[in-house]
C-alpha cells in the first residue's frame, strides 16, 4: 500500500484508502488472469498426452481404457471451465490495435472453422484434404478472433490454442498421420456444411449469453 502525505489529515486518510483499493484491484486482476493461464496450461498439457504414445499407453495400462478416458474428459472439462471463467473475468489490457478490416474476416473464418470441426466427427471428403480437420478448425477460429481482438487475455486464449494446434499437427505428422483416400458420397459433405452453418448461427445469436461478448 502506498501512502501519500497531504496537508489535511482527513484527506490523507482518504488518499491512503484509495491507494489501498488500487492495490487490491491489481491483485484481483492478477488472480483473474492467473485462472485463464492455468486453465490454458492444464488443457494443453492433457491434450499433449497423445504426443507421447508410450506415456499414454502406460496410463491406460494402469488405469484401464474407460477410467483413462473418464479422467481425460473430466480434466478437459475442468480446464475449459477455468478458461471460460478466466477470460470473462480478465482485465482489458491492450497489446496491439487490431486492423480495421480484421472483424470483417472473423465471421467467415469462424464459419469455416465450425465446418472443419464437424467434419472431424462425421465422414466427409474434407478428410481427403487434411488429416487434421479439428486442429485446422481451431487455427482458423483462433486466427479469426485474433484479427478482432488485441488484448492480453485474447492473445493468451486464442494465441495459445493456435500454437498448441500447430504443435499438435506437427506431432501427429511425425507419428504418421495421413489424409483419407476414401471417397464419400456428396450428401455427407452437405450434412457437414449444414451442421457447421447451423452451429455457427446459434453461436452468433447467443454469443453474449455464452461468452459475455455481444456481437450485434
Portion in strands: under 5%
The SSE string, one letter per element, is: HHHHHHHH
Number of strands: 0
**Helix share of residues?**
over 70%
Question: Please, what is the oligomeric state?
Answer: single chain
Backbone structural class: mainly alpha
The rounded distance between the terminal residues' Cα atoms is 41 Å
**Biggest β-sheet strands, sense, barrel:** none
Shape: globular
Annotation keywords:
216 residues; mainly alpha; disordered N terminus
Write the layout of secondary structure elements.
Layout lengths: L8 H39 L5 H11 L1 H25 L12 H18 L13 H14 L5 H23 L11 H20 L1 H5 L5
Helix pairs in contact: 1-3, 1-6, 2-3, 4-5, 4-7, 5-6
Tell me about this structure.
- The structure is a single chain.
- By secondary structure, the chain is mainly alpha-helical.
- The protein contains eight helices and no strands.
- Helices cover 72% and strands 0% of the residues.
- The model is unreliable at 1-20 (pLDDT under 50).
Kindly summarize this structure in a few lines:
By secondary structure, the chain is mainly alpha-helical. It has helices at 9-47, 53-63, 65-89, 102-119, 133-146, 152-174, 186-205, 207-211. Helix 1 (9-47) packs antiparallel against helix 3 and helix 4 (102-119) crosses helix 7 (186-205).
Amino acid at each position: 500500500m502506498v501512502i501519500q502525505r497531504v496537508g489535511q489529515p482527513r484527506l490523507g486518510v482518504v488518499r491512503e484508502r484509495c491507494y489501498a483499493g488500487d492495490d487490491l484491484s491489481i491483485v484481483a486482476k492478477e488472480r483473474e488472469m492467473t485462472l485463464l493461464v492455468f486453465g490454458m496450461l492444464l488443457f494443453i498439457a492433457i491434450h499433449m498426452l497423445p504426443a507421447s504414445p508410450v506415456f499414454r499407453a502406460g496410463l491406460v495400462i494402469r488405469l484401464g481404457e474407460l477410467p483413462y478416458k473418464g479422467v481425460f474428459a473430466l480434466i478437459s472439462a475442468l480446464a475449459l471451465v477455468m478458461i471460460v471463467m478466466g477470460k470473462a473475468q480478465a482485465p482489458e489490457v491492450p497489446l496491439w490495435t487490431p486492423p480495421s478490416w480484421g472483424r470483417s474476416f472473423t465471421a467467415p473464418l469462424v464459419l469455416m472453422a465450425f465446418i472443419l470441426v464437424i467434419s472431424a466427427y462425421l465422414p466427409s471428403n474434407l478428410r481427403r484434404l487434411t488429416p487434421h480437420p479439428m486442429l485446422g478448425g481451431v487455427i482458423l477460429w483462433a486466427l479469426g478472433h485474433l484479427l478482432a481482438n488485441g488484448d492480453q487475455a485474447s492473445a493468451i486464449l486464442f494465441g495459445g490454442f493456435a500454437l498448441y494446434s500447430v504443435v499438435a499437427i506437427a506431432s501427429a505428422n511425425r507419428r504418421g498421420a495421413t489424409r483419407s483416400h476414401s471417397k464419400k458420397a456428396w450428401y455427407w459433405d452437405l450434412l457437414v456444411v449444414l451442421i457447421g452453418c447451423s452451429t455457427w448461427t446459434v453461436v452468433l445469436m447467443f454469443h453474449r449469453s455464452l461468452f459475455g461478448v455481444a456481437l450485434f
